[in-house]
Amino acid sequence: MKIVVSGFKGKMGTACTNMVLRQEDFILAAVYDPFATEKHLDELPQYAGHPVKVFSDKATLVKEVEADVWIDFSRPDAAYDNTRFALENGMRPVIGTTGFSSEQLEELTNYSKKLGLGGLIAPNFAIGAVLMMEFAAKAAKYFPDVEIMELHHENKLDAPSGTAIKTAELIYEVRGDHPQGHPEEKELIEGARGADYHGMKIHSVRLPGLVAHQQVQFGSAGEGLIIRHDSYDRDSFMNGVALSCRKVMEIDRLIYGLENFL
Ligand SMILES: NC(=O)C1=CN([C@@H]2O[C@H](COP(=O)(O)OP(=O)(O)OC[C@H]3O[C@@H](n4cnc5c(N)ncnc54)[C@H](OP(=O)(O)O)[C@@H]3O)[C@@H](O)[C@H]2O)C=CC1
Ligand SMILES: O=C(O)C1=N[C@H](C(=O)O)C[C@H](O)C1
């Protein structure tokens, strides 16, 4: 299977290129980044002995390279364009980049169906994070009062995280709208109670030293329940990305969420 890694210079892009090079049935056909130069390959030890084409221009890439899968870990503001581009050019998208609106997800899904091309957009590729979301949705049936705290490294561009949004969506499916806290509560400093998603609060923490962590905290009369997941290392996402590259070859439309492959 021939794979392009988009955003290859980044933290996740670097982990993905290493992962692709480690898999016997994967070929790293090309790497893409709008700001890349050949010099970047020389600087990256993981490419030693592997002739890989580097592109800073998508149009040139598709003229010179044929690939089955487009892995993308770039920026929230590039996620839609890159996914659309992959589909338009016959590459199955495996997208970890966050920041899609629900309208964009719907449009891309419809487009992939028209083309009959498989793909996946997943806000989190760590198996433990998928389980955390499923457990949280299950608990919400019995514990409708919940707050989500997501904690990430200080270079993260989007807040709340894609994982927190997906978790909130799953919980909303179970419990619906549910105002929380005192009806007369007032924020003395704006934002003190976090973001509000159908009554549930989402808090975003950004600190050096963190990777990706989320705590879903439930409260009920006289008891509490905390479901927590920690990614200590970006390797935590790689089994999910590798699995998804194989699975998108077997389906004929774009899907949202790694849980669909587990
Ligand atoms: N789904 C999941 O499991 C996970 C998702 N993520 C998501 O992946 C994304 C990337 O995260 P991370 O690797 O930490 O970020 P980084 O900032 O480390 O890497 C992003 C890279 O993308 C490059 N880039 C900028 N614009 C484009 C573009 N238009 N096309 C392709 N590449 C581009 C950047 O280049 P430059 O620096 O020169 O601008 C940078 O090298 C984020 O949205 C994050 O939330 C992260 C971890 C797990
Ligand atoms: O930016 C990150 O690092 C991560 N982004 C994803 C998200 O927004 O949920 C997945 C994971 O939390 C790491």
TrEMBL record:
Record-linked InterPro entries: DapB_C, DapB_N, DapB_N_CS, DHDPR_bac, NAD(P)-bd_dom_sf
Short name of any one Pfam family annotated for the protein: DapB_C
Protein name: 4-hydroxy-tetrahydrodipicolinate reductase
Keywords: Amino-acid biosynthesis, Cytoplasm, Diaminopimelate biosynthesis, Lysine biosynthesis, NAD, NADP, Oxidoreductase
GO cellular component: cytosol
Binding-site positions, NADP(+): 39
A biological process term (GO) from this entry: lysine biosynthetic process via diaminopimelate
EC number: 1.17.1.8
Class of the enzyme per the UniProt entry, highest EC level: oxidoreductase
Residues of the Dihydrodipicolinate reductase C-terminal domain: 128-262
